[in-house]
Write a structure and sequence with these properties.
The protein has 189 residues and is an alpha/beta fold. It is 41% helix and 13% strand. A 6-stranded parallel beta sheet has the order 3-2-1-4-5-6, with helices on both faces. Helix 7 links the parallel strand 4 and strand 5. The protein starts with a strand and ends with a helix.
Length: 189
C-alpha cells in the first residue's frame, strides 16, 4: 500500500505555526479557537502580501525550523515504513526543500520520498504516485483528494477543519488513531 502524508498539521503539530506567529509577530492567536487555516487571516495583510513578507523576511523558513512534530509521529512513521511505501506530499515550495529536509532529519523521521507541490492542489500527485490512502489536516485538500480520487483520506482533527466531510474522509485526533484506521484498510502483514 502507498500512503501520501502531508507535513504541516499532519506530521508537524498544527499549533506550531500559531505559536510562531504569537512569538514573532505579536499576535495572540489561541490555537484552540483558530477557525481559519490560512495564517494571513490573523493579520491585516492579504494572502499575497503575507507570504511575500514571510518569504522575504525569513519567517517562512523560521516557522518550519521552529515547528514541533506531532506526538508519537516518529514511532508510527518508522513502523509504517516497514510495511508501506510512504510519500511526504507538501504544499511547500521547492525553495524550502533544504529546511524541510533538515527538519525531517533533526526529528529523526524516515524520508524516502518528498514531493514539494508549491500549491494546495495535491490531486495530480496522488494520481501520479497511485496512492492508496492520504493523510491531511487541511479540510479543503482532504475533501478534494477524497472526491477526485476516491481513495480514503485520514483527516487530522484541528479547530480550523471542523466541518462536514465525505464518507471516505476519516477524522482522527492522533497518530495512534490514524494507525488504527490505516490497519483497517491494509492490515499489517
Amino acid at each position: 500500500m502507498k500512503i501520501g502524508i502531508d507535513i504541516d498539521g499532519t506530521i508537524r503539530h498544527p499549533s506550531s505555526c500559531f505559536t510562531y506567529m504569537n512569538k514573532h509577530h505579536g499576535t495572540s492567536i489561541d490555537f484552540n479557537q483558530a477557525s481559519e487555516y490560512e495564517l494571513h487571516t490573523y493579520t491585516d495583510m492579504n494572502q499575497i502580501e503575507f507570504w511575500d513578507y514571510m518569504v522575504n523576511s525569513g519567517h517562512e523558513t523560521g516557522i518550519y525550523r521552529e515547528s514541533i512534530p506531532q506526538e508519537h509521529v516518529r514511532h508510527h512513521l518508522w513502523n509504517l515504513r516497514k510495511q508501506y511505501d510512504l510519500h511526504y506530499v507538501t504544499a511547500r515550495s521547492e525553495l524550502v526543500r533544504p529546511v524541510t529536509e533538515e527538519w525531517i532529519k533533526q526529528h529523526e523521521l524516515p524520508l524516502d520520498s518528498l514531493i514539494m507541490t508549491g500549491s494546495h492542489d495535491k490531486v495530480q500527485v496522488v494520481r501520479d504516485l497511485s496512492l492508496d490512502l492520504f493523510m491531511e489536516d487541511r479540510l479543503e485538500n482532504a475533501v478534494q483528494i477524497a472526491e477526485d480520487t476516491f481513495i480514503p483520506v485520514i483527516l487530522f482533527d484541528a479547530p480550523y477543519n471542523r466541518k462536514a466531510v465525505p464518507n471516505n474522509v476519516i477524522r482522527v485526533a492522533s497518530w495512534n488513531e490514524a494507525v488504527q484506521e490505516i490497519q483497517k484498510f491494509a492490515p499489517i502483514r
